[in-house]
Design a protein that fits this description.
With 204 residues, the protein is α+β, with helices and mostly antiparallel strands. The protein has one domain: Mog1/PsbP, alpha/beta/alpha sandwich (Protein Transport Mog1p, Chain A), CATH 3.40.1000.10. 26% of the residues lie in helices and 31% in strands. The protein has three helices and ten strands; from the N terminus they run αβββββαββββαβ.
Length: 204
């Protein structure tokens, strides 16, 4: 009577199963896919004017955004009523805008504070590029592009160096991810450029 070596039998059976699986997989149509993100439908760039009585500035902003007065700026109380948020509900994003009267400060301090606030993101940033601003309306300042997974990719300040100083910073209400946010960041950068190029100081 033939005796069956159970251990050897199951070993051979296991090897045969593995070989069969490998042969089958070689004939399959599986292809490794790259990581992707949901497609975001971007609206056409269209603008309207923000020119409210009493505000020391005016500019054009997108029709798909809302301008609201800011009652708190990252838990700090604004020092005047001219701090605003430009809210983009479609993108879960805001441009936080703070205004400073140089008469109550000094230009050098406000400029240095703007640089410090931008460079606070150095630990998460892969790069920080600075571009001087000089518009046809005589507005000057600096635009910052922050690379990497920093909390904000775009910041700027504009000033006349004697009376007015305004700073803007774009933030998303989501975990920063440079790759997934890139299309929206580039889209909103164009809106920020338009805002700056149409920006005017009033009562000069």
């Amino acid at each position: 009577m033939l005796k069956l070596n159970t251990t050897r039998f199951f070993t051979v059976l296991g090897i045969c199963c593995v070989i069969s699986a490998l042969l089958f997989s070689c004939n399959s149509d599986f292809t490794l896919k790259r990581r992707g993100y949901f497609k975001i439908d971007l609206p056409p760039h269209q603008y309207r004017t923000f020119d409210q009585p009493g505000y020391p500035y005016s500019f054009e902003y997108p029709v798909y955004a809302n301008v609201v007065r800011d009652s708190s700026f990252f838990e700090a109380k604004p020092e005047n009523p001219w701090w605003i948020n430009i809210d983009f509900p479609r993108f879960n994003a805001k441009i936080y805008v703070s205004y400073k009267d140089i008469g109550h400060n000094t230009f050098d301090k406000l400029r240095d504070d703007a640089f410090k606030m931008t460079f606070k993101h150095t630990s998460r940033a892969s790069s920080i590029d600075q571009t001087p601003i000089r518009t046809a309306n005589g507005v000057g300042g600096v635009f910052f592009n922050v690379g990497g997974n920093a909390a904000t990719a775009h910041q700027f300040f504009v000033t006349d160096t004697t009376r007015h100083f305004l700073r803007g910073a774009l933030y998303f209400d989501t975990t920063p991810n440079e790759d997934s946010l890139k299309p929206v960041n580039e889209f909103l950068q164009e809106d920020m450029n338009h805002l700056i190029n149409t920006f005017r100081w009033k009562n000069q």
